[in-house]
Amino acid sequence: MKGIIMAGGLGTRLYPLTKAISKHLIPIYDKPMIYYPLSILMKLDITDILIICTEKDIESYKELLGDGSHIGISISYMVQQKPKGIAHAFIIGEDFIGKDSVALILGDNIFYGNNLLNVLQSSDNDRIEGATIFAYEVKDPMKYGIVEFDDNNKVLSIEEKPNFPKSKYAVVGLYFYDNKVVDIAKKLKPSSRLELEITDINNIYRKDNKLEVKLLQPTIKWFDTGTYKNLLDASTFVEHTQNEHSRYIGCIEEIAYEKGYISHEQLIKIANSMRNTEYSKYLESIVREK
Question: What confidence tens digit (pLDDT) does each residue in 130-183 have?
Fold first, then answer.
């Protein structure tokens, strides 16, 4: 399975923060935002990853993450010239995806929870047919793609930012698809927003009875960090959780070490490159524990 991180768009909701820097490079407490979705893909053993971003930001991402070899994975980059929607990722990444299935995660979505990995792992590996998406109960459903269920939890509809939501379950920014998603995306017509909507893709799978929607329980935390308040809430949560458990969230170097992608010598080298920071001290402590 290939992995795509969608980090395009202009981030206009966060102006002036994002006038000079990509939203996905803004810090969430002690790490760039993009570390968090990247860490989810790595935890799922997805090591061939494409980052889609704007032309003005691509060099910043390359400087931050390089080709991924320092953490034992492969990272490549492609440019989204204009904000044409989330589903546009599959057209941009067609050659990257090849004949594989694909996981798409939005660069501004953060997930955390003790049971999160078990929920996700049951959805991603060696997907042959169909799609899996995830829904989370929210207080402001008009801001999201919303899933409507019947009494047996069968999906009846998915609507993008409805004026009259039929439920409070929002589709979160993590999706698993079989290889057919590329052809589906290429046949989409732009919405009234002039974008290729991920909701349209999900509805095509739904109509073909190939869509599975899994509910994320309240014990799992999800942040869509597209607003000032959500940025602050996510940073506060990361700080509190890390201090409480003495373990970092979204630490890509730690995950690479635990997965065996890099050796303890390589981890120490990364720690030393960050000089005498709290982050480097944490990486050094991981080696000492092992």
Answer: 999 999 999 999 989 999 988 877 889 999 889 999 999 999 999 999 999 999
284 part of a folded domain:
no
Model confidence, pTM: 0.94
Q: What is the pLDDT of residues 215-242, one digit of tens each?
A: 999 899 999 998 999 999 999 999 999 9
Q: What is the CATH number of the domain that holds 208?
A: 3.90.550.10
Asked whether residue 269 is assigned to any structural domain, the reply reads no
pLDDT band at 285 (very low <50, low <70, confident <90, very high): very high
CA angle (221, 65, 102) in 5-degree steps:
60
Structural domain contains residue 123: yes
In what helix (H) or strand (E) does residue 65 lie, and over which residues does it extend? helix 58-65
Q: Is residue 289 part of a domain?
A: no
- Report how many domains make up the chain: 1
The SS3 assignment for 222 reads: strand
Confidence (pLDDT) at 127: 58
**Burial (CB count within 10 angstroms: exposed 0-12, middle 13-18, buried 19+), residue 110:** buried
Query: How many angstroms separate the first and last alpha carbons of the chain?
Result: 30
Tell me the residue range of the domain where 246 lies: 2-259
Give the rounded distance of the alpha carbon of 209 from its chain centre.
25
Say whether 192 sits in a helix, a strand or coil.
Answer: coil
